[in-house]
Amino acid sequence: MIHIPALRFGRSYTSLEKATLVHHVTGEPVAEVSQVTGSMIARDLSNMERAHKELAAIPIRDILAMYKKAADYFVNGTLPCGDAELTFDDYVRNLSATTGSPQVFCKRNALKVHYVLENIEEVIGGLTRGLDLEVLDKGYSIKGGRTQAFYPTTDVFGAVLPSNSPGVHSLWVPTIAFKVPLLLKPGREEPWTPYRILQAFIKAGVPASVLGFLPADHAGAGDILRLCGRSMAFGDDRTMAPYKNDHRVEIHGTGYSKIIFGEDQADHWEKYLDMMIEAIAANGGRACVNASAVWTPRNGDAIAAGLAKRLAGVKAKPWDDPTCEVSAFAKPEVAEAIDNMITQGLETPGAEDVTLKLRGTPRLVKDGRCAWLLPTIVRCATPDHPLANKEFLFPYASVIECPQADVLKRIGYTLAATAVTDDPRFIADVMACPHIERLNIGPVPTNRLTWDQPHEGNLFTHLYKQRALQHARQPAAV
User: Fold this and answer.
1) Mean pLDDT of 297-325
2) Sign of the Cα pseudo-torsion (178, 180, 186, 187, in order)
3) Residue 478: pLDDT band with limits 50, 70, 90
4) Judgement on whether residues 241 and 269 belong to the same structural domain of the protein
5) Dist CA 354 CA 466 (whole Å)
6) Which of 75, 171, 406, 461 would you label with 197, given CA atoms 20 to 30 Å apart?
7) Where are the alpha helices (DSSP H) in 46-102?
């Protein structure tokens, strides 16, 4: 069994208290992860000013070269994992074992992390909207006679991470390029990806003194969000509620992402069936950018039936099957709770599980220690039904009819929206809609992201603020 220590900014730490991770199929122990306390977190954070200065002194071009090396080490190297050495395939296998996510999903999402590491200059260009990289070395740049200056908002960036998909780690990966030390609290079942990324950074030359890997309990997570000047956290609406108005915390929560048909395309919905299936079911439907609702001015019954017919054939398959389309739940009780929530919601008149009718078998599948939820399409008679605006950790979507004139007033918060329309007036209305964060015009699935177009906040503007700067001996403009 592997032991994974905490990394306390240059010092490996083995604790008496450890969390044991087990294989979701066999129940056999896979790893022990050392745990840290709130007092340790506070002690480590007291040294961050020094760590920040050390990182700030490294030229940005040198840091970018380290990212390129780290990208290669992440996918091609054999890297330390506590008292073991893991190849990329070993890492994927362990990640799948403790999270329940199929190996094919784990590898696909880990390659997203590799992309960000490999293309970090492109990612930074998107996050900074094309600022000269010298800003990260000097704090300002001059172009066309205009000075742009920025200063860091914190000495350390804390990330309280989830266990659902390794792709989310791409969001914090640019932190070191922005010259801010990094503190990670991994998800309980998913220490593998953050630990491997940090080991790749260290091997590439990033000082270990600016990297923290601090596994902790719920109270420890709260300490990180309370003590770090800037942080990000992942969770549902209830978990994230205490931080909703805390500007220091960038929240990555429930997405309520949607596909919205315009009047001009609602009759042509069959052309967009593949796009809708990808948006709903890609990556096992577990991402906040997976569509959880389809809004249309008409043909709701036909759209629901078309989606259900395609998704009703999805089966629960073993974790190592390369054709897996849904993830197992490492904790079967979570799948059971979600299944109960949907079943109770269907008791309210005005909703029908169309997939259940076609599949003829329950959405909850159990086999030994494992549980799966099969794709579910619910046709809701009105936008007010309890299941009309829900999101779950599997391929789930409601289908709702609503007039085009009313839809943008009714959709509520939407992380990612795909507006299927060619109507210039409706496009202008969607562009002006304050409820939508990430917008696709035309048949682009909600889950397809470009890393230079951030969603749910912008890491650069979270870590830096712009300031006015006048320099008595300002150099000539370039």
Assistant:
1) 97
2) negative
3) very low
4) no
5) 51
6) 461
7) 48-56, 60-76, 88-99
In the listed set 220, 253, 286, which residue is the last one of a domain according to the structure? 253
Place of tokens 């909850």: 364
Which tokens go with 217?
Answer: 């309990």
For residue 364, the tally of other CB atoms under 10 A from its CB is 19
Q: Note whether 221 and 233 are same-domain residues.
A: yes
The alpha carbon dihedral of 266, 271, 273, 279 has a sign of: negative
**Percentage above 90 pLDDT, the chain:** 88
Element spanning 315, H or E: none
Residue 469 lies in a domain: no
Tokens of 17: 């208290």
**What is the gyration radius of the CA atoms in the chain, in angstroms?**
23
> Which residues are CB-contacts of 229 (< 8 A; sequence separation ≥ 6)?
153, 154, 155, 156, 248
The domain total for the chain is 2
Tell whether 140 is covered by a domain. yes
C-alpha–C-alpha distance, residues 253 and 241, integer Å:
10
Q: What is the mean pLDDT of residues 324-341?
A: 94
| Backbone region of residue 137 per phi and psi (left: phi > 0; alpha: psi in -120 to 50; beta: other values) | alpha
Please give the Cα distance from 325 to 234 (Å, whole number). Answer: 24
323 shares a domain with 275: yes
- Cα angle vertex 389, ends 235, 441, to 5°? 90
Question: What are residue 376's DSSP bridge partners?
Answer: 396
CATH code for the domain in which residue 217 is found: 3.40.605.10
Assign 428 to helix, strand or coil.
helix
Residue with tokens 């450890």: 18
**Boundaries of domain holding 172:** 2-253
pLDDT at residue 48 greater than cutoff 60: yes
Q: How is 98-165 classified by DSSP, letter by letter?
A: HH---HHHHHHHHHHHHHHHHTHHHHHHHHHTS--THHHHHSEEEETTEEEEEEES-S-EEEE--SS-
| Per-residue pLDDT tens over the stretch 205-251 | 999 999 999 999 999 999 999 999 999 999 888 888 899 889 999 99
Contact 161, 168 (CB under 8 A): yes
Whichever domain contains 281, its CATH number is 3.40.309.10
Per DSSP, the three-state class of 442 is coil
Q: Do 232 and 247 reside in the same domain of the chain?
A: yes
